[in-house]
Structure formats: structure tokens, C-alpha cells
């Protein structure tokens, strides 16, 4: 199999709210858009974020429309603590404060206006003694 591109497609009520949030806070830019559709790209990521408005007949399978239970959109960054401080200062809704798992995953989670959860992670040296920051 030759994979030529990667995207995650999210079904949301307000496409522009999620797209604007990703542009302002995560540095994405618009690749293309139409009524009820927006595809975003990032200069440092090979994955596009696509938002589709809930109720579009082109969203398939219909059984998946309107929800993304348990879906996390995850990006690895070089300075998770710096991003945490920057995004909190910008008023981003943090849904899980920064913490470090014993296996070395230091992360936090935030939500966009449609409730899509994004996680920023930095891999650090595994240790049970890593601090958490409120």
C-alpha cells in the first residue's frame, strides 16, 4: 500500500468555529473550503484536518454522523510546557491539565468550540517521578 496523504475528517455542527480555532491556536491554514466543508493543512505536519458539517449527505457512513466519541486529535510538539502556557494565556479551554505518564508521555488536552478534543504531547524520559503542573 502506498499512502500519499493523511487526513482526519471530523463531523461538527459549526465547521467555521473549529476551523478558525485550529487556525488561531494550532497554526493551520486553509487548503480548501466549500459550504459545510473545510480542509486545513499545517506546514510542519503531514496530516490535514478536515471538518464536515453535521447533516451533510456526503458524510458516510451515516451511522457515524454527528459524533466522535473517544476521538482525540493528537500532535507531538517539542515544548509541551511552552505550548500549554501559550494556549492557556490565549484563553483556550483546557480539559485535561498538563501531566506526565510513567512511560514518558507529557501532555495536556484542550477542546475547540464544537467539543473536539486535541492533545499536545511531548515525549520525555520515562520516570514515575515526573511532576504534573496544574
From TrEMBL:
| Pfam families assigned to the protein according to its UniProt record, in alphabetical order | Glyoxalase
- State the organism of origin: Nocardioides kongjuensis
Domain (VOC) spans 4-123
Instruction: Tell me the classification of the organism that encodes this protein.
Output: Bacteria, Bacillati, Actinomycetota, Actinomycetes, Propionibacteriales
Q: What is this protein called?
A: Putative glyoxalase superfamily protein PhnB
Query: Per its UniProt record, what Gene3D superfamilies does this chain match?
Result: 2,3-Dihydroxybiphenyl 1,2-Dioxygenase, domain 1
Annotated InterPro entries:
Glyas_Bleomycin-R_OHBP_Dase (IPR029068), Glyas_Fos-R_dOase_dom (IPR004360), VOC_core (IPR037523)
Amino acid at each position: 500500500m502506498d499512502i500519499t496523504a493523511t487526513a482526519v475528517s471530523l463531523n461538527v455542527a459549526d465547521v467555521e468555529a473549529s476551523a478558525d480555532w485550529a487556525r488561531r491556536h494550532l497554526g493551520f491554514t486553509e487548503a480548501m473550503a466549500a459550504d459545510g466543508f473545510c480542509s486545513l493543512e499545517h506546514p510542519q505536519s503531514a496530516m490535514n484536518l478536515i471538518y464536515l458539517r453535521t447533516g451533510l449527505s456526503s458524510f458516510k457512513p451515516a451511522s457515524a454522523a454527528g459524533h466522535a466519541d473517544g476521538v482525540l486529535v493528537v500532535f507531538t510538539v517539542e515544548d509541551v510546557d511552552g505550548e500549554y502556557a501559550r494556549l492557556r494565556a490565549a484563553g483556550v479551554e483546557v480539559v485535561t491539565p498538563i501531566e506526565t505518564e510513567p512511560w514518558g508521555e507529557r501532555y495536556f488536552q484542550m477542546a475547540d468550540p464544537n467539543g473536539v478534543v486535541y492533545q499536545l504531547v511531548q515525549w520525555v524520559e520515562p520516570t514515575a517521578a515526573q511532576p504534573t503542573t496544574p
